[in-house]
Amino acid sequence: MSYTEEVYERVVAQNPGEPEFHQAVKEVLDSLKVVIDRNEEKYRSLSILERLVEPERIISFRVPWIDDNGNVQINKGYRVQFNSAIGPYKGGLRFHPTVNQSILKFLGFEQVFKNSLTGLPIGGGKGGSNFDPKGKSDREVMAFCQSFMTELSKYIGADTDVPAGDIGVGGREIGFLFGQYKRIRGLYEGVLTGKGLTYGGSLIRTEATGYGVVYILNELMQAHNDSLEGKTVVVTGSGNVAIYAIQKATQLGAKVVALCDSNGYVYDPNGINLDVVKDIKEVKRGRIKEYADRVEGATYTEGTGIWNIKCDVYLPCATQNELDVDGVKTLIANGCKYIVEGANMPTTREATEYAMANGVLFLPGKASNAGGVATSALEMSQNSQRLSWTAEEVDAKLHQIMKDIYAKIDDAAKRYDMPDNFVAGANIAGFEKVVDAMIAQGLV
Ligand code: NDP
């Protein structure tokens, strides 16, 4: 049995009931096999893979809070501090009823490689809670965030662990979390990113993940003598990543015709009107169904199936495992040529392999959605300097980072004779830097 297979079996045996974590580890280890095989003895003797798949620390805690009816509610809170070889832990907080340790370990593990690809000094972590902010009042969200941070504040700091937003954690939640950290620790420091502009946030951070997805898509297309101009695009989700991917794709000449939320999807043949989406999602915190009531010519379909809409480019920006092999087959049959992940692991393993084997140019989330965390790292730099850069400066840096990521994953794929296999390219390029730093720092 190869070293990578051995370590995968060990992960499955030692982490029962964590299917998402197993899935993420398998995908990475499978593509690292070519790298490991060339130097197996050295990696084995240092137990590099065993160390890579074991989080440095997992903190889990109780989050008590009181709802608007005066009832006590209890949620679970977590922080997975996965790997700090190249910098302080960095990664988002997710508030969603499905959150559990498996999902946060998969996200933390992916984050290690993603953060490495950005070229910036940030290690990997992830956290969150099974709290559902949907339908809660602002007061309830604040009560929850304050209780969550009361515990989390013991383990984070500007030079140790810097969380950010993710699903269910946007500007409102980051504000409440920051306020409570400051109150408890007495420190005004860059302990969270995605902050508001009046208290240390960075311009372009809100837009960064979605913009980054489209910047790297653009690199991929240019490298294949193609462009976004006149292309039809389908984006899934209607949250932070989706909204700004739609905005940038539209600016670059594409027509985005569909988006969704977890209840259903909207098709607008005239091109999605983003002002309406922002009003529904960012202001009213409503459902995407309302779009069809407000925009003439748009239709709403309840349930899944957004992949049935014909497109050249598909950008899954909602959640993990949202796109399966049947969805990919339909996309390909309808002429889709590019799938670029905005979400983390939105495409199942089988669907990813099918897409790549059938001529789709595919970019994995750990490369294509890295613009968010990269801009978070730029926010950290600004906080440390006590300076704010202009939107143009941050956007230019983000754009360059996405170009560099494309160059790195393309180069790694070519070095190992797998041109256009960007899944392998991203895993290998991310791994090389982290492992070099781990080896240099000894057995810690
Ligand atoms: P948001 O909470 O802002 O939006 C998530 C969107 O996805 C919502 O529209 C939500 O709909 C929809 N959604 C969730 N589950 C499903 C489902 N099963 N089917 C269809 N739609 C669904 O989150 P973000 O936009 O911030 O994050 C989206 C993805 O991008 C996540 O995988 C996240 O980890 C990843 N990501 C985010 C980054 C960031 O900077 N925000 C950075 C890098 C990655 P509903 O409202 O119905 O729940």
From TrEMBL:
<dbReference type="InterPro" id="IPR033922">
    <property type="entry name" value="NAD_bind_Glu_DH"/>
</dbReference>
<dbReference type="InterPro" id="IPR006096">
    <property type="entry name" value="Glu/Leu/Phe/Val/Trp_DH_C"/>
</dbReference>
<dbReference type="InterPro" id="IPR033524">
    <property type="entry name" value="Glu/Leu/Phe/Val_DH_AS"/>
</dbReference>
<comment type="similarity">
    <text>Belongs to the Glu/Leu/Phe/Val dehydrogenases family.</text>
</comment>
<dbReference type="InterPro" id="IPR006095">
    <property type="entry name" value="Glu/Leu/Phe/Val/Trp_DH"/>
</dbReference>
<dbReference type="InterPro" id="IPR036291">
    <property type="entry name" value="NAD(P)-bd_dom_sf"/>
</dbReference>
<dbReference type="InterPro" id="IPR050724">
    <property type="entry name" value="Glu_Leu_Phe_Val_DH"/>
</dbReference>
<dbReference type="InterPro" id="IPR006097">
    <property type="entry name" value="Glu/Leu/Phe/Val/Trp_DH_dimer"/>
</dbReference>
<dbReference type="Pfam" id="PF02812">
    <property type="entry name" value="ELFV_dehydrog_N"/>
</dbReference>
<comment type="subunit">
    <text>Homohexamer.</text>
</comment>
<dbReference type="Pfam" id="PF00208">
    <property type="entry name" value="ELFV_dehydrog"/>
</dbReference>
<dbReference type="GO" id="GO:0004354">
    <property type="term" value="F:glutamate dehydrogenase (NADP+) activity"/>
</dbReference>
<feature type="domain" description="Glutamate/phenylalanine/leucine/valine/L-tryptophan dehydrogenase C-terminal">
    <location>
        <begin position="202"/>
        <end position="442"/>
    </location>
</feature>
<dbReference type="InterPro" id="IPR046346">
    <property type="entry name" value="Aminoacid_DH-like_N_sf"/>
</dbReference>
<keyword id="KW-0560">Oxidoreductase</keyword>
<protein>
    <recommendedName>
        <fullName>Glutamate dehydrogenase</fullName>
    </recommendedName>
</protein>
<dbReference type="InterPro" id="IPR014362">
    <property type="entry name" value="Glu_DH"/>
</dbReference>
